[in-house]
Amino acid sequence: MKPNKILVGIILVLVGVFSLLRNYIPFNFGMLMMLVTGLALLLLYRQKKAVWSLFAGAYLTYFGALQFLGWVGIRLGGHVFVGMFFIVPGIIFMVLYLEKKKRGLLIPSCVLLCLGAFITISGGIFRMLRMIPYAIIIMGVMMILKSILNKPRN
C-alpha cells in the first residue's frame, strides 16, 4: 500500500472521529481543519516542492495554532499576531534559500524576520519606532562584518 493512501486514510479517520466528538464535546472544528489542511500542505511542499503549498500551509498552520491557543485559554497580544505576519514569510524565504541557495531570497528573509522580531518583542508597531536606533546599529554592524568577512585572502 502506498504511503499517500495510508496518510489519506488516517486523515479521514481523524476527521470522522472529531466529527463524532463534536456532538459531545464543544470543539472548534474549523481550528482543527485549518491545522490539518496547513500540515497537509506543508507535507505536499516536502514531497512535491510546490512553493505555493509552503506559503498556504504555513499561514493555515499559523492561524490554526492561534485558534488552538485561544481555545486552550492562552491569549496573545495583537503585537504577536502582527509580528508573525512578518516572521512567517521570513521563515518561508529562509527555507527556500536553504534549499535553492539563491542569494535573492536571503535578504527579504532577514528583513522580514528582523522586522517581525522587533514588532513582537517591542509590543507593537508604535513602540517599535523607539527601536529604530537599535535596528540602525545592528544593520551597521552587519555591514561591517560582511565587509570584513568578504575580504579577499592572499
Tell me about this structure.
The chain has 154 residues and is mostly helical. It folds into 2 domains: 1-75; 83-154, no CATH class. It is 81% helix and 0% strand.
SSE topology string: HHHHHHH
Q: Percent helix among the residues?
A: over 70%
Question: Based on DSSP secondary structure assignment, what is the total number of beta strands?
Answer: 0
Number of domains: 2
Q: Please state roughly what percent of the residues sit in beta strands, choosing from under 5%, 5-15%, 15-25%, 25-35%, 35-45% or over 45%.
A: under 5%
- Low-confidence spans: none
The SS-based structural class is mainly alpha
What's the mean pLDDT score?
A: 77
> Between the first and last Cα atoms, what is the distance in angstroms?
59 Å
Give the CA-based shape.
flat
Largest sheet: none
Radius of gyration: 20 Å
What's the total helix number?
A: 7
Main attributes of the structure:
0% strand, mainly alpha, 154 residues
In short:
The chain is mostly helical and 154 residues long. Helix content is 81%, strand content 0%. Helix 3 (51-72) packs antiparallel against helix 4 and helix 4 packs antiparallel against helix 5 (106-122).
